[in-house]
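During the practical work, I selected for study one protein's amino acid sequence and its backbone structure tokens, as given directly below:
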Amino acid sequence: MIDALSDIFKLIKLKSCVYFQRDFHVPWAMKIEGTGFAHYHVVTRGHCVVEVDQHVHRCSVGDVIFFPRSKSHVLADQAGRQAISGSEVMTSFEGNDPYFNEGKEFARIICGHYEYKSGIPHPLISELPDFVHIKSLDILPDARISSILPLLMAELSNNEAGSSSIVERYAEILLIQILRSYAGRKPQRPEFLNALCDQRLIRAVNRIHRDYALPLGLNDLAQEAALSRSAFAQRFKETTGIAPIEYLAKWRMLTASDLLKTTDLPVSHVCEKVGYDSDISFARAFKREFGITPSSYRREV
């Protein structure tokens, strides 16, 4: 059975990393620079603020903060603090004189990042906003998120064998739940994520992911969604911001780029595997998507 969201995560090769769960004692401020990773934070005790693009967002216990594209930001106990770089703060945690280690009031925060190891630009990630804030009031009714957070917190306090691997898996599950929660809050926004929550459109997306190597057309996908051709095309475009045949072409190209990176298959074989019967048409489509030919792409990676 094809699961589109899991399929996408496999393609982008998601890998999680948890830096720490630490107590930040007042006064404190830490600046996270753009590193190329998707940063996230979970407030597990107390409260803090997040400053991003000169806007201040107040966060309370249970809030989850996610930056899908490594946006620079500041975490602090209050706005306007002079912030210390995150790398410097993390270095201090390894020594005997860690930053923000004294004071009566404190916030406890989990910090980490997600890495899209393949670098493949799927709309699921590229169309998300720079900053996603899931508040505890939104999380509490969702048992899937509210149950994974205690498990993550408990494992971070556990030094038993295999703990790091368990923490990474929990963090990956957390991201999936973040995306599900975000989709539920923004049902009218034209983002690809919304198609994964539409019972008709998800069938068409799954068909694309399963049969992209076959000569699929708009009629095939509309039939899969149990909609007329025109109704399906309109609904898909309005929901995702991309036409269904355009997404089919994009998925073929993303899959081709992964094959070029991870296998030694000749370009002509990659062409066949993603549904093209002409090397020339495949090369043209690939160049439209990535700006270079398949052979040049393989040499660069």
